[in-house]
Design brief:
By secondary structure, the chain is an alpha/beta fold. It contains twelve helices and twelve strands. Strands 2-1-3-5-6-4 form a six-stranded mixed sheet, with helices on both faces. Strands 9-8-7-10-11-12 form a six-stranded parallel sheet, with helices on both faces. Helix 9 links the parallel strand 10 and strand 11.
């Protein structure tokens, strides 16, 4: 008899657009792991029921996307230090009735910046735009790469200050200057600009002046596809290299896959294949 495949999925609302099922199916094919991975739409207010349903089906784990990452962290019986710092989880593992939460978003971001873009973070000046869940998930892994300075800019300054305070000990450990500021008060340019706001998703303009761009620097939008195009155009017009978040998507999935299966998938190959797939004209 053929052994049954282990069940994993991504929970979100909306979720039909998710590329995660394709990514994990390709990881499984390339590593020889037996699993099936689904996208499941969860009604607002229905996250706890969705987890209970997964447990009843014997699922091994799940990814969590907007707007349930905070609920995922709260639902866990144990969590990683990354989840404790971010207050949000995107990866859950199920075993023996326990729910173990992790956050692979920041790990995926750092991997794509350093390996995909070939950009070294040590000693650099970094501007992190936003102070929500995406920014919170990214900040810890960024600090661990020992940039010279990280400035968190957010429209609501208090949220940026709270995020900085939560990461102050980690910043001190890695000798990183960590500051909070309002976007309007920015006066310097940066080696790396990370857009973790919802501006691209909502179609709004870039929330800072082009004066923050440094010629030859890297401007990175955590969104990908058409949503990121405005930010990428803005960055290139200012003389910066521009990169979208598709690599982050694949790399965070690779981190989750490795947590679940103990096998590191070939993320660079899968990213190249996914970019080629998305570039194909619609038929």
């Amino acid at each position: 008899m053929t052994a049954a495949s282990d069940l994993y999925c991504v929970l979100g609302n909306p979720v039909a657009h998710s590329r995660s099922p394709w990514i994990h199916a390709r990881f499984a094919e390339l590593t020889g792991e037996r699993l099936r991975y689904e996208a499941r739409l969860v009604p607002i207010g229905g996250f706890a029921d969705a987890l209970a349903q997964l447990a009843a089906e014997g699922a091994r784990g799940c990814n969590v996307t907007v707007p349930f990452k905070l609920e995922a962290a709260s639902a866990a019986t144990a969590c990683s230090e990354r989840v404790r710092l971010a207050g949000a989880a995107n990866t859950l593992s199920f075993a023996g009735g326990a729910i173990v939460a992790d956050n692979t978003d920041g790990l995926g971001l750092v991997a794509d910046i350093m390996q995909g873009a070939g950009f070294a973070l040590a000693g650099r000046d970094v501007l992190l735009l936003g102070a929500g869940g995406a920014a919170a998930g990214a900040l810890g892994p960024l600090l661990q790469q020992a940039p010279r300075r990280v400035l968190v800019a957010n429209r609501t300054l208090g949220r940026a200050e709270a995020l900085v305070q939560a990461h102050a000990e980690l910043a001190s450990l890695h000798k990183v200057e960590l500051l909070a500021q309002s976007p309007q008060a920015l006066e310097h340019d940066f080696d790396l600009i990370l857009n973790a706001t919802a501006s691209s998703l909502s179609g709004a303009g870039v929330p800072v002046s082009a004066s923050v761009l440094r010629a030859g620097g890297l401007a990175y939008d955590m969104m990908y596809g058409p949503a990121a195009q405005g930010f990428l155009d803005w960055a290139r017009a200012g003389g910066a290299e521009a990169r979208d978040g598709l690599g982050m998507l694949v790399e965070q999935a690779a981190e989750a896959f490795a947590l679940w299966r103990g096998v590191r998938p070939p993320s660079a190959q899968v990213l190249a294949e996914l970019r080629a797939l998305l570039a194909e004209p619609a038929r």
